[in-house]
């Protein structure tokens, strides 16, 4: 059975990704409507009820847009950190029966997949990133983080595939349309990861075996796919490294990314 990652939406207007690992289907965030989710899963021959779980990173609207309708119609469990669960159950009391709160830093299992949930620095109740392990594969997921603290770095090192935020180009943010206070929030330690910070971590990840990198949660106003890709490619090239880089589009990916087991060769870097 194929292991794959399929981004259904990424960026300030919505976030949602499907991870298929060892026959287990995990949806990360619910930032699309149920109608759209149904259609996109249908394109893969799946239905919402084929999902083993939804894992939520935090309660911001771009990550939970479809939640109210979802809990009305489906009984797929929603895993999230306890602080996020509290914030969500205040907003959506009808979600209570579906929520599976965990303590950040916890390990748990969904189907055949071992999940490690780690805290991320962001201006939400208790935002979370994830590492997934199954079938000899390790996949990391971290978006909505103002910087890369050591526990986040350590959780992602050694993952063969990593979905990592590359939110903004600092110069575009500084000269862009956002008011000063919002610029400060985005660039701050509980905001979003910049292209240079993403690129810096990418070098370390590839040095430690990451061979597929998906740049995610790009800002509409303060970034372009070209800026994000160039920054990380240049940093890898300068370090004598290379890896497969995809930029998650605002809407769905053209096709799922098949996850590979092969590790980037760090002993004979490409020119
Ligand atoms: Zn957020
Ligand atoms: Zn977000």
UniProtKB/TrEMBL annotation:
Pfam families: Lactamase_B_2. Gene3D superfamilies: Ribonuclease Z/Hydroxyacylglutathione hydrolase-like. SUPFAM superfamilies: Metallo-hydrolase/oxidoreductase. This is Metallo-beta-lactamase domain-containing protein. It comes from Butyricicoccus pullicaecorum 1.2. Residues 13-192 form the Metallo-beta-lactamase domain. InterPro entries: Metallo-B-lactamas, RibonucZ/Hydroxyglut_hydro, WalJ/YycJ-like. PANTHER family: EXODEOXYRIBONUCLEASE WALJ, METALLO-HYDROLASE YYCJ-RELATED.
